[in-house]
User: Which sequence fits this backbone?
């Protein structure tokens, strides 16, 4: 692949990711979840399975622990997350989504589905599935983080 072709592919992937992030964010806001930024959604993605410590979240998002602490404080203050005692490490706190956080996560999933359906309208359902398969081979385990 020529350098210019690689740059064109890079630009297309970045534009697609940016557009998808924006569509999901707009869908979340349209479903009544105000006061969030796309960076919050990337934090939700890490918190959703089983919670995380601030240190885990910082590593996932590629930010300092201080910045992750501020992000967590915002999520707690807005009612999307809460701090709990860590089940294994008495020195750490586990950050978990509240019911409101889970509702917002489900809203993001709905918005993502709408955005991907729009892709299927352009390139077809089979091509969307193929794209997913190819991208999963290139980047199987993330992490999914915002482009600061």
Assistant:
């Amino acid at each position: 692949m020529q350098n210019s072709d690689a740059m064109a592919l890079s630009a297309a992937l970045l534009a697609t990711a940016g557009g998808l992030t924006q569509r999901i964010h707009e869908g979340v806001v349209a479903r009544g979840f105000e006061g969030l930024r796309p960076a919050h959604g990337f934090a939700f993605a890490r918190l959703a399975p089983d919670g995380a410590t601030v240190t885990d979240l910082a590593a996932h998002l590629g930010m300092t622990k201080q910045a992750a602490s501020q992000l967590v404080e915002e999520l707690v203050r807005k009612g999307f997350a809460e701090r709990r005692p860590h089940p294994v490490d008495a020195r750490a706190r586990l950050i978990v989504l509240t019911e409101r956080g889970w509702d917002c996560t489900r809203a993001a999933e709905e918005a993502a589905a709408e955005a991907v359906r729009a892709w299927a309208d352009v390139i077809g359902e089979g091509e969307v599935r193929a794209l997913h398969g190819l991208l999963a081979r290139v980047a199987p385990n993330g992490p999914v983080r915002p482009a600061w």
